[in-house]
Amino acid sequence: MFLAGSPSHTLRRIPMLQWLLLLQTLERGVGRASPAGAPLEDVVIERYHIPRACPREVQMGDFVRYHYNGTFEDGKKFDSSYNRSTLVAIVVGVGRLITGMDRGLLGMCVNERRRLIVPPHLGYGSIGVAGLIPPDATLYFDVVLLDVWNKADTVQMSILLRPPHCPRMVQNSDFVRYHYNGTLLDGTAFDNSYSRGGTYDTYIGSGWLIKGMDQGLLGMCPGEKRKIIIPPFLAYGEKGYGTVIPPQASLVFYVLLIDVHNPKDTVQLETLELPQDCVRRAVAGDFMRYHYNGSLMDGTLFDSSYSRNHTYNTYVGQGYIIPGMDQGLQGACIGERRRITVPPHLAYGENGTGDKIPGSAVLIFDVHVIDFHNPADPVEIKTLFRPPENCNETSKTGDFIRYHYNCSLLDGTRLFSSHDYEAPQEATLGANRVIEGLDRGLQGMCVGERRQLIVPPHLAHGESGARGVPGSAVLMFEVELVSREDGLPAGYLFVWHQDPPASLFEDMDLNKDGEVPPEEFSSFIKAQVNEGKGRLMPGQDPDKTIRDMFQNQDRNQDGQITAEELKLKSDEDQERIHEEL
């Protein structure tokens, strides 16, 4: 934008000394010669396009939005709002613009185009702007005004058509249905209800509409047509809305009121298909994933989760969805199909939504419940098979296990299976190697046992899901424990099955040179494992585990272990206790 002291948002501020020099220059009234040769005393304004209707002209203190191109006398461009794809939005006459631009904008109409010639003393004077505008430069601007408003503005209403009979006028808290065309002040259309084939429905004065529309609809009769002009501070203000309504934009609505009423109805339910094994029904507080087709009463489809290939996921009875759907989903079973008919005041009747659901429309949802759970749900465990022989040892935290599994969604969609690979899945229980719910479900199993596990998402992949797993999905596992090995105590890489040798270092020092290098250490540990005297942490690379053990014992990191360095972990732990005491 062309602000005072800077022709572009990319320019740095002019230093104070340059400002003082510029003020001195302006006081002297120095300016370059115009194209005709005579110095310009004021801005030269050429109004080369004036709209037929000009209900308002720019005055001092008005807020304006405009586009411009800025060039020098030779036609070279030095700045342009078009290059930034952003209009200038600024107040006129308060020192935010160079004086020449302030003067050149006065009296402009929306959609008017002007060519301005700004002499140096009304631009950047004898100082200019380093690297961009030379001293004593005459500036040429091509400007188109797109919007103008003032903080003192109110909503402007013009009655275009009023029916001869008006049984009722719109008041605050009424529910209305209306058609509209919405444009910016320059006539650019941003939205209309007609293209969506339905009215816009909302309550008045309840905050569902922008404040200006709330005011503009008051007093309307059914069948009345109005033109409503809303300043930005009663519309979408500094932020605008999406890509269609720019920041600080005045809005113009041409409105046709269809009706005004206060509906009162309840939700209607119809069961289309009910699974035989319905052991649980949804209640308030449950989190549900479901598919749906949504249509109007005339059969017009307005939305479908199937088209997105993704379920709709939400809490039931918590106000995250329309009240009628909140009510209609409660009591449903997993796998059930039901039709839910929702009246407008329990649907989108108060404010409508998007471009497909008209106001005061009865909505019909054909719903298929995929799954639901409660944030307090534990893992559900069902034993499918348990070996008939005695099972004295079961899996527990720290154990290294191998297991097969099939994983699916509750609707039967297959996700993963260990049978797709050459070997069973491996995991150390309690080591965060698998999702928490599966870890819990695998504990307490006998080798050969098979279970069905129902894992809620907060114990699985949560709201975000994972590769191949939808967000908030309840997972069903069928697992079979193939093998189990006792784990090691926390912090241990190796444990003895019996008391360690009294002369541990001497046994480890194979060449009796008083030092144990990595090769001797590795040979000794592997020998203990092979002879059944001890075992390494299961599920890990033995060589890496032994290297880690050596690293722990080689306390001075010289590549050798001495008798003074070698200590059992149990001894280390005891020493640590004494140190703490």
From TrEMBL:
Q: Where in the cell is it found?
A: Endoplasmic reticulum lumen
GO BP, sorted A to Z = aorta morphogenesis; collagen fibril organization; extracellular matrix assembly; in utero embryonic development; wound healing
Q: Tell me where on the tree of life, at the top rank, the source sits.
A: Eukaryota
Q: Which top EC class is named for this enzyme in its record?
A: isomerase
A single GO CC term for this protein reads:
membrane
Can the keyword Glycoprotein be found in this entry's annotation?
yes
Tell me the segments the record calls region Disordered.
553-581
Q: Which PANTHER family does the entry link to?
A: PEPTIDYL-PROLYL CIS-TRANS ISOMERASE FKBP10, PEPTIDYLPROLYL ISOMERASE
The entry's protein name is peptidylprolyl isomerase
User: The organism's lineage?
Assistant: Eukaryota, Metazoa, Chordata, Craniata, Vertebrata
- Gene that encodes it: Fkbp10
